[in-house]
Design a protein that fits this description.
Blueprint (H helix, E strand, L loop, with lengths): L3 H15 L5 H8 L3 H8 L8 H11 L3 H7 L5 H9 L1 H10 L5 H13 L3
């Protein structure tokens, strides 16, 4: 279940157990994709769709948009823009956090979010 498609299928099918509206056909319709195309995505026969389509899938399946984008090998365009504005600083930050435990990552996020600049 490591691939984008298999994760997506697993998540959709788990939701379908309780709600029949999570069929391939109905989810595809809600997110603006052809059912055959969504089926191919879930079977990893085609690459993950666009950022916009992944965002709609994340919303429809109750998933985090950035996490689903990352699983699909993509980064949100707003994050890319930030990285492009400060490439050296973001590269240093991300590489510095590479081996950090989850608690340390959360601490950095909270400090940035709540910090007094």
């Amino acid at each position: 279940m490591n691939s984008f498609g298999s994760y997506l299928r697993h998540r959709r099918e788990a939701l379908r157990v309780k709600d029949r509206s999570y069929s391939v056909r109905q989810v595809a319709k809600r997110v603006g994709l052809e059912p055959a195309y969504l089926s191919k995505i879930e079977r990893d026969e085609v690459a993950p769709p666009s950022e916009e389509a992944i965002g709609r899938l994340a919303e429809a399946l109750g998933e985090d948009r950035d996490a689903l984008l990352a699983l699909g090998g993509k980064v949100s365009s707003d994050l890319l823009e930030l990285i492009r504005r400060h490439p050296v600083a973001f590269a240093e930050l991300i590489r510095g956090l590479r081996d950090a435990p989850p608690a340390a990552l959360l601490r950095v996020v909270r400090e940035v979010r709540d910090g007094d600049w």
